[in-house]
Design goal:
single chain; mainly beta; Immunoglobulin-like; eight-stranded antiparallel beta sheet; 62 strands; about 40% strand; elongated
């Protein structure tokens, strides 16, 4: 690489090259008001991870720069918030991400303060996917009413170069509008180099047939015909395409192109006969900015100190290189000096780098108008054709032109099937070819030159070359052989001889009730656990339907239990009850109960006791439920998991094992039960709910009770062989509930106990409208009517105590039981109290001595005979309180 001086050239022809570089520093000032707001300019020097921010000068001490990834500047690129860049008008912003868009603004400052923010400009670092032209639009264009169509046409023009050239080079070009010029002009920096250096780079990067032709006719040593100089004038973009470093002055674009769009058809397809093509003009000037220009100038002698690359391909009619500026001479662009592609312009009023695509007035047999034609053609839409060939041979790398691939397809043996999808397609196209077998044949594979390339009937590939593919078929039918194991355990259907390529189903059905289906196997490998097994028939099959002794007979029956979310605990949205009935063949039906909604379940357990179902109702719609029925451990239980939308729940259900004739439930009898309330009577019920339930010989439970807020509850349930009662009662229109497991186990104080969760929702209610969730512990005891002359509590004297609720203070009274179990009030408060000997329930009322208006407080409850006490509740003033009777 050689560092050489910058050469600046200018000419006044319609499509010309001109150069004017100006670098202006900030104007210094001392004293006075803060500086005025500077005017920002579009970014230049855009690379893969940087760009140059630019702005106009104002009278100031220096400038501060902000860079952000958001036009509102909520955050900043590290190192570029209020960055003091000093008294310069350009700053390269580095360390950026390719493809991301960045925004910048600038402020001026001096000793007296800081200006406001300039307008915001954006820039997007790029990864070049070829020769990338980045247009930068001057205000003269962005403020034009036709800016959108002007910018669109220029952008589409710029995109052509990345499409046609693969050089990983970024070229920034500033576009300016000026109605005072001809059609267009460009300004680009050039650097001197040696011919030997230039030719060596052409040889290293030659890829096309045109490159090979051009290099075979370029001498190893080329000299200027005038004085033998070997200096080359090389444009900076061309140098970079050749792999030689060449940078412009900071803040400058690689080139500036000025266009007079008032004389142009702005859309690429417009054909106003009085105007010229903006597409052609932009393409013309971009070509020149890339180095497609001549060092010859009309009215001047040929240059003696340098050679432009395009001039190396300038030949006279005899095939000799010609550098003449004689307007009467003829010169042509040619790769080899023999085949002339276009005729160069020799008219001093035009650019000697331009040409005429038409050699004669008739233009017969010559290319259509080219964008590089001198003076242009009004009303025409020129195309870039020869220009791209010229750019290729002066040093840019042209992409390979599109190709076609011929896809030939055939069938073997003939008549065994049909094929579709062959033909001629563009290279790079994804092609799918299909093979269809004829009756009596089956598809085998696709082969190419005898090699298998696919076993799929539909074969997809990218066409990059000609291919000759054969679809191979085999004339065959397939036999399905079915066997039941053990013999006689079941029936199998679906066997026989069938055509290949179809979906086929075989079925297995157990014989009688002694066996159930287990699985289908082939060569001792299980292939399906579904009794109805469907498969694609593409080979002979020898299938065995395996049956096992029926494991469901001893576990058939009705199961009941509860489910909840073990992670988040018992809550109204994910806890409830489950009931499942299992038949002697493993079929099951049942339901989940969650609030007021039942979610039906049905399915079939497999021979190992597993099953999966999906619910199809409301909140649990689509929930997957896995069930496991114990077939071997004798637990008489089904466990499972419910995968809901918002929670994963576990459940356990026990089988009803008792019956009145052969296995009577040991819990048989009449019971009283207490449901204690909470500890804060103002926010949750403070009394004790109460009731009775019975257990019959078959283990059936029948509950009737009143909770401490006055809510009545009932339930029909079954006690398990473990002595457990799954209690779940939806309440308050399904928005609340009582949930928990109760255990029958006799102690000195009770015969039944268990933890319960009592939930009430927020909503209109006479008592506790704000809702609550109470964790309580229920207690129950066997009850029998007292013998005549004995009191329900087993005592002759007792105290009555009412506390909590809305009472200002507890109410107490003394009672005695008479010979007929009647209650005798021995206190000063007016009291009525009655015990129902048959059930163990009581009810009554008592005067409130602290009430302003004398009104008796009504109450009720139940006897806990194991404790010789009675407990219950009262409701007063919107609250619930406790009742206790004992000695």
């Amino acid at each position: 690489m050689q560092a050489l001086a910058i050469r600046r050239v200018a000419s006044g022809i319609p499509f010309c090259c001109a150069l004017l570089l100006l670098q202006t520093s900030a104007l210094q000032t001392f004293g006075g008001p803060p500086p005025v707001t500077p005017v920002a300019d579009p970014a230049t020097g855009i690379g893969t991870n940087s760009f140059v921010a630019n702005w106009e000068p104002v009278v100031t001490t220096g400038y501060r720069l902000d860079v952000s990834t958001n036009a509102l500047f909520p955050s900043y690129v590290p190192g570029y918030q209020n960055l003091d860049v000093g008294a310069v008008l350009h700053e390269r912003v580095t360390g950026l991400t390719p493809g991301a868009t960045y925004y910048y603004r600038v402020r001026a400052y001096n000793a007296d303060g800081e200006s406001g923010n300039s307008e915001t400009f954006s820039a997007t670092p790029v990864i070049p996917h070829g020769l990338t032209i980045i247009p930068i639009f001057d205000r003269s264009i962005t403020s034009d009413p036709q800016a959108a169509v002007i910018e669109s046409t220029i952008n589409s023009t710029a995109a052509l170069y990345a499409t046609n050239f693969s050089d990983p080079v970024i070229v920034s070009i500033k576009f300016v509008e000026d109605s005072t010029i001809g059609l267009g002009q460009s300004v680009t920096e050039i650097t001197d180099g040696t011919y030997s250096q230039y030719r060596a780079r052409l040889v290293a990067q030659a890829t096309t047939a045109d490159d090979a032709i051009a290099l075979s006719h370029l001498p190893n040593v080329a000299t200027n015909p005038v004085n033998g100089s070997t200096v080359m004038a090389l444009y900076h973009p061309l140098l970079r395409a050749l792999g030689i470093s060449a940078e412009v002055v900071l803040g400058n674009p690689d080139s500036t192109i000025t266009l007079n769009t008032t004389k142009m058809n702005l859309p690429p397809d417009a054909t106003d006969p009085t105007k010229y093509s903006l597409f052609a003009a932009a393409c013309h000037e971009i070509d020149e900015a890339l180095g497609l220009a001549s060092g010859l100038v009309g009215g001047q002698p040929p240059p003696t100190d340098y050679i432009f690359p395009q001039d190396l391909f300038r030949y006279d009619q005899s095939g000799v290189r010609s550098f003449t500026t004689d307007p009467n001479a003829e010169s042509y662009f040619s790769l080899d000096g023999t085949n002339f592609l276009v005729r160069f312009n020799q008219n001093g009023a035009g650019d000697f780098g331009d040409w005429y695509s038409c050699f004669s007035l008739q233009c017969s047999g010559f290319p259509p108008p080219q964008v590089q034609d001198a003076f242009g053609t009004a009303g025409a839409n020129p195309v870039p054709d020869v220009e791209f060939r010229a750019l290729d041979v002066i040093g840019y790398t042209r992409r390979a032109p599109p190709c076609d691939a011929v896809i030939s397809i055939g069938v073997s043996p003939p008549g065994a099937g049909s094929v579709q999808g062959g033909g001629t397609v563009a290279c790079g196209t994804n092609v799918t070819i299909n093979a269809t077998a004829a009756n009596g044949f089956v598809f085998l594979n696709w082969t190419e030159d005898g090699t298998v390339v696919s076993t799929s009937r539909a074969y997809t590939f990218q066409a990059t070359y000609n291919r000759n593919l054969v679809a191979n078929f085999s004339p065959t039918t397939y036999t399905i052989t079915l066997t039941a194991s053990p013999a006689g355990a079941g029936k199998v259907t679906g066997g026989g001889t069938f055509k290949p390529g179809t979906q086929h189903t075989v079925k297995a059905t157990a014989a009688g009730n002694n066996y159930v289906f287990a699985d289908w196997s082939e060569s001792s490998n299980v292939v399906s656990t579904a009794a109805n097994y469907t498969f694609a028939l593409n080979a002979n099959r020898n299938l065995v339907a395996n049956f096992v002794p029926n494991p469901f007979i001893p576990v058939a029956g009705r199961y009941s239990g509860l489910f909840y979310d073990p992670v988040n605990g018992v809550n109204q949205q994910s806890s409830g009850s489950v009931t499942i009935s299992v038949s002697s063949k493993g079929a099951f039906t049942g339901a989940l109960l969650l609030g007021a909604t039942r979610y039906p379940l049905s399915g079939q357990f497999d021979s190992t006791g597993n099953a999966s179902v999906v619910t199809a109702a409301k909140n649990l719609s689509g929930a997957l439920i896995n069930l496991q029925l114990d077939l071997s451990q004798g637990t008489d239980r089904i466990s499972g998991t419910i995968y809901g939308h918002n929670a994963t729940m576990q459940f356990l259900a026990d089988r009803a094992v008792f019956d009145a004739r052969t296995n009577s439930a040991p819990q048989k009898g009449l019971y009283t039960i207490i449901f204690p309330g909470g500890l804060g009577p103002s926010t949750e019920p403070g009394g004790d709910g109460y009731g009775t339930f019975t257990v019959d010989a078959a283990g059936h439970i029948k509950l009737g009770a009143t909770l401490a807020d006055g809510t009545k509850i009932t339930q029909l349930a079954t006690v398990s062989k473990y002595g457990q009662w799954p209690l779940y009662v939806p309440l308050y229109a399904g928005q609340g509930s009582v949930w928990g497991w109760l255990n029958f186990s006799s102690t000195s104080s009770n015969d039944l106990s268990g933890a319960l969760t009592w939930t009430k929702p927020n909503g209109p209610a006479q008592y506790y409208p704000r809702g609550f969730q109470v964790q309580t512990f229920a207690q129950g005891a066997v009850y029998s009517a007292p013998a005549p002359g004995n009191s329900p509590l087993g005592v002759t004297n007792a105290q009555v105590l009412l506390s909590g609720g809305d009472l200002a203070q507890p109410i107490t009274d003394q009672i005695a039981f008479g010979p007929a179990n009647q209650v005798v009030n021995q206190g000063t408060n007016k009291l009525t109290l009655t015990f129902t000997a048959a059930t163990g329930l009581f009810k009554g009322s008592i005067a409130n001595p602290t009430a302003v208006v004398t009104k008796p407080v009504s109450f009720g409850g139940a006897v806990l005979k194991a404790q010789n006490v009675a407990r219950g509740c009262f409701l007063e003033g919107g609250q619930s309180g406790a009742v206790w009777i004992g000695n």
